[in-house]
Task: inverse folding
């Protein structure tokens, strides 16, 4: 019935709320990444608080990829998994098109028609290049620039059957998978060292790594396997996750400081990108920590916000343009625009929170309208079948 379909709260809590909580955190970090401040203040000094926040912000998309790996292969485990791979693959393709890709098209179309209104341009035109750039050129721009993640998601999804062959907890497959993980991590670590020392890599293994994001998927799956091990205590697993995160965080922080002192701010952000060794430690550690620390919680609110992170992710780029002046006002009102220490934290919470809430509200409206349209099509289909 219609009354059962529409609702703010999930009535059947099926998702893992601990992972949904991490998804919400990662989504907020995505927003902060697009409004982040420079950690260099005054006359070339580094603000440790802002740099620390920047290190946290850098975990945003890596967390999403590890979460993907955490759930990606759960339905293709067991003795008959090979028979189930084609069916599960088809379900994932269908689910992606219906729940992810079509909503991104809807949001892109909104931006296509609202572009000049949002930017307050005197002349109005329809900016089809936003849609064609995303769909045909795989190069999303401007308000939908963050959709590069969706494109990368598709590339990983297409390779799901291949990944599923080695993502099973059996000795021979563990050796294959973990050997590949070690190779990729070695390639990344070598690149990190080469960047820091400004020298050529003594060995080039990058040609054996077609898609470096695969490592995040495998890290997520390894976390999934560890959470299933009843022989390891929950507290122990949470501590392991915390240690991995802290090691990655302090590596990222200290290496950025070393790079800044040697080469200046223009070359100091290498360890903030996804393709650096600390990213895998932080993302994997946070996933393990959240799963074990918040295991067993049941919250309709967390479920709702977790489900809405896709829409917040899609819409925050648009609201950055709409509410940009408010971000500037918030910045100027805090310590007269001098973003240091606690004032930077307040800026992130206030402006980032404003973008999150605005994107959430509009996203909820779009999601419900889209849901009603889907339900109407389903009813017509059932009627025609009858």
Result:
């Amino acid at each position: 019935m219609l009354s059962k379909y529409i609702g703010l709260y999930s009535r059947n809590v099926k998702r893992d709320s601990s992972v949904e909580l991490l998804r919400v955190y990662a989504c907020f970090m995505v927003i902060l990444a697009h409004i982040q401040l420079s950690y260099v203040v005054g006359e070339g000094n580094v603000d440790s608080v802002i740099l620390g926040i920047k290190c946290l912000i850098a975990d945003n998309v890596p967390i999403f990829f590890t979460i993907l790996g955490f759930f990606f292969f759960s339905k293709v485990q067991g003795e008959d998994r090979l028979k189930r791979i084609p069916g599960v693959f088809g379900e994932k393709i269908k689910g992606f098109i219906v729940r992810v890709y079509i909503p991104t098209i809807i949001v892109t179309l909104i931006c296509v028609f609202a572009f000049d209104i949002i930017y307050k341009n005197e002349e109005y035109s329809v900016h089809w290049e936003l849609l064609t750039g995303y769909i045909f050129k795989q190069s999303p721009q401007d308000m939908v620039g963050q959709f590069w993640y969706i494109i990368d998601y598709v590339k990983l999804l297409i390779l799901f059957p291949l990944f599923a062959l080695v993502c099973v907890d059996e000795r021979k497959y563990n050796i294959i998978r973990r050997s590949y993980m070690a190779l990729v991590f070695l390639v990344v670590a070598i690149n990190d060292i080469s960047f820091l020392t400004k020298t050529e890599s003594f060995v080039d293994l990058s040609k054996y790594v077609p898609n470096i994001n695969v490592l995040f998927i495998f890290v997520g799956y390894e976390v999934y396997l560890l959470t299933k091990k009843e022989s390891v205590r929950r507290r122990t697993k949470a501590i392991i996750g915390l240690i991995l995160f802290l090691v990655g965080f302090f590596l990222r922080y200290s290496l950025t400081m070393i790079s800044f002192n040697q080469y200046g701010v223009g070359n100091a952000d290498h360890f903030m990108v996804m393709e650096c060794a600390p990213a895998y430690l932080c993302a994997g550690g946070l996933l393990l920590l959240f799963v074990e620390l918040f295991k067993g919680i049941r919250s309709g609110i967390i479920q709702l916000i977790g489900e809405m992170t896709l829409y917040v992710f899609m819409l925050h780029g648009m609201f950055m343009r709409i509410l940009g002046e408010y971000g500037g006002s918030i910045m100027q009102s805090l310590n007269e625009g001098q973003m240091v220490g606690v004032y930077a934290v307040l800026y992130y919470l206030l402006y980032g929170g404003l973008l999150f809430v605005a994107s959430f509200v509009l996203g909820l409206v779009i999601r419900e309208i889209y849901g009603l349209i889907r339900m109407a099509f389903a009813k017509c289909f059932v009627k025609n079948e009858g």
Remarks:
- Residues 57 and 70 are 21 Å apart (CA to CA).
- The first helix runs from residue 2 to 5.
